[in-house]
Design goal:
The complex is a heterodimer of chains A (365) and B (216).
Chain A lengths: L3 H9 L6 E4 L8 E4 L11 E7 L7 E7 L4 E4 L7 E9 L4 E3 L6 E2 L10 H22 L10 H15 L4 E6 L6 H19 L4 E5 L2 H17 L11 E3 L4 H15 L3 E7 L4 H10 L3 E6 L5 H7 L2 E4 L2 H10 L2 H29 L4 H7 L2
Parallel strand pairs in A: 9-10, 9-12, 10-11, 12-13, 13-14
Antiparallel strand pairs in A: 1-2, 2-5, 3-4, 3-6, 6-7, 6-8
Helix pairs in contact in A: 2-10, 3-4, 4-5, 4-9, 6-7, 9-10
Chain B lengths: L6 H14 L7 H37 L3 H4 L2 H11 L10 H32 L10 H24 L8 H44 L4
The chains are: A alpha/beta (365), B mainly alpha (216).
Chain lengths: 365, 216
């Protein structure tokens, strides 16, 4: 009976065409089930999808979709194992079962073919960046315009030294794999170098232990490059806490007690941005902020003296270091922007005349 | 009015008021609250990382998994050990390898994420017709002006972030338009975020008045 019933259903059921196949372009663990919509689909309440781990299995309901849908993705499969599927059309007064699908096996794909266009763009701009960095390495002069906030770094460090106060550098609450944090560390190096020249103290409270390790290395390098490794104090670059508001409370307390002459708020910030910037303002410190967090930039602009807006932070790293590799990267990025401006410009003109070639090309992403 | 008799509510109320006292000035109550907050949150994160990260993913994963899923865990375990080398002075520099791996991985993952999540959708959303026909003249003007503003704002903002050329002449004018658009966007974002912060304050005040003092 166990075998006869499915055969009878398959022969007499009008609900056929259930297919199960490995979900393409994924990391495995998923099978897609597709079926032909019934002619009387508008009378169906929903479709229930059943999974069978063997032909003798009684089946397990794994999910439902509303009428009009003919696809379901089973995301609970084990790679390499065979599964069968059946779909049940649920009517208000009856249930119609489909045939049993042929077996399907899920597996992971090495490449996602849907992102081929992204690969193309990445390769193109990779080549552009490589070319510019090579040119910069050969000694070709690279111009980068002045960035107001950066010009103030020296002023801030100098002022802090004159007042006999320390410098507080807050690298935000980003992790080390956050590009903004890496850019902040480049700025920290410059600050540490200047502080060493002026024999000032730099305090760096950290949110993340790994960022702390990187910050310690950065400050040490800055002091060493200025010829004053003796001034470097490892205890001034320390871990505070990995809790967002705990960190804000700790840094605020430090601002009130240490009364720094200059405060650098550089990195990734969230809701604590205004709390920190306001406290820094209240102690009378000169503040230079920089972040890529769009929602926090307004607070920094309102409460600090200078702000590096978004990409200015990345340009700042190159501008300060004068490293040909980094300068070449900025040049490459600028060319990329120029290309995008041209593409958008052409796209807008074509779109106005009802030609959708460019917008359609971007739709494949 | 029914004041809470729960000692934990009293502790929470005391700490809330201690933190709020910072609005007046730095004081002993704020210092108590701050040190408890920093200390307990650091300790909590340590326990959290152990029970939600290291133990289930690395230790239990190694014990329970088989084959490739098991042996691949040696790589993060090895990198973790490298990181701990920081405490061994003569070989402390080895920890840089683990940091370099993390930075490289973050940058690599970030590039594709930003490209597909931000860059391409933004370009796609900017390629719009300058003229859109609406069901009335007013609607046509409104829709067309909307598109023109969007295109102008995006392009001029990109020009503002162009670093290879001094901002003089026409470039200066375009970048000034760009920064104006950016500032208008920031203004809107400022107002929106302040509203969200006020709701946080309301939450705390409600706790004091309802859970603690029982006034509302």
């Amino acid at each position: 009976m166990g075998i006869i019933l499915p055969i009878l259903i398959f022969l007499y059921s009008p609900f056929k065409g259930v297919k199960a196949f490995d979900t393409p372009d994924d990391g495995g663990g998923s099978i897609t089930i597709k079926w032909e919509l019934l002619k009387e689909d508008s009378s169906v309440m929903r479709y229930d999808v059943y999974r069978y781990e063997s032909l003798k299995d009684t089946g397990v309901l794994i999910g439902s979709v509303l009428r009009g849908s003919n696809t379901y993705q089973d995301i609970g499969t084990k790679d390499g194992k065979q599964y069968w599927y059946r779909v049940a059309a649920i009517y208000p007064d009856t249930v119609l079962f489909s045939n049993l699908s042929s077996p399907a096996v899920s597996k992971a794909q090495w490449f996602n073919s849907k992102t081929k266009a992204s690969l193309f763009i990445l390769l193109f701009f990779g080549i552009v960046l490589f070319w510019f960095t090579e040119e910069a390495k050969k000694g070709k002069r690279t111009y980068i315009r002045k960035i107001a906030g950066l010009e103030a770094v020296e002023e801030a460090v100098g002022r802090s030294t004159e007042l006999g106060k320390p410098i507080l550098f807050v690298p935000g609450i980003g992790l080390i794999n956050d590009i903004t944090t890496i850019a902040a560390l480049s700025i920290l190096k410059r600050v540490a170098k200047k502080a060493a020249e002026y024999e000032s103290r730099v305090i760096v409270p950290n949110f993340d232990p790994i960022v702390m390790v990187a910050a310690q290395e950065t400050v040490k390098e800055g002091y060493t490059e200025s010829g004053r490794p003796d001034l470097y104090n490892e205890n001034d670059v320390f871990f505070l806490t990995s809790d967002q508001f705990g960190y804000a409370a700790g840094v605020d307390g430090m601002m009130m007690r240490e009364k720094p002459g200059a405060i650098f708020l550089q990195g990734t910030f969230y809701a604590e941005a205004l709390i920190l910037a306001e406290t820094g303002h209240s102690v009378g410190a000169i503040q230079i902020s920089g972040t890529t967090s769009v929602t926090q930039l307004p607070f920094f602009i309102a409460a600090t003296d200078y702000t590096l807006i978004g990409e200015e932070m990345f340009a700042a790293s190159a501008y300060l270091s004068k490293d040909p590799l980094m300068l070449g990267t900025i040049k490459g990025e600028d060319l990329t922007k120029l290309i995008f401006i041209i593409i958008i410009g052409i796209g807008v003109i074509l779109e106005t005349f009802g030609i959708h070639i460019i917008s359609n090309w971007f739709s494949i992403f | 009015m029914s004041i809470s008799l729960n000692p934990w509510v009293w502790i929470a109320a005391f700490l809330t008021l201690s933190m709020m006292s910072f609005l007046y000035k730095d004081n002993i109550f704020y210092k108590i609250g701050e040190h408890i907050y920093v200390g307990s949150s650091a300790a909590f994160m340590l326990i959290y990382l152990w029970y939600f990260d290291v133990k289930p993913k690395l230790i239990d994963g190694f014990i329970n998994n088989t084959g490739f899923s098991r042996w691949i865990l040696i790589i993060p375990a090895f990198l973790s050990l490298l990181m701990l080398m920081r405490f061994v002075r003569p070989v402390a520099w080895i920890s840089r390898w683990a940091i370099a791996f993390t930075v490289g991985m973050g940058a690599g993952l970030g590039i594709t994420g930003l490209l597909q999540g931000f860059l391409v959708p933004q370009i796609k959303a900017t390629i719009l017709p300058l003229y859109v026909s609406g069901h009335s003249t007013l609607m046509t003007i409104y829709l067309s002006l909307n598109n023109i503003l969007l295109i102008l704002g995006t392009l001029s903002a990109i020009v503002y972030f162009y670093f290879s050329k001094e901002h003089t002449g026409p470039v200066k004018k375009i970048s000034q338009i760009g920064i104006t658009f950016i500032m208008v966007a920031f203004g809107a974002s400022f107002g929106y975020t302040v509203m969200a912060r006020i709701s946080l304050l309301i939450g705390r005040v409600y706790f004091l008045l309802h859970n603690w003092l029982g006034l509302v």
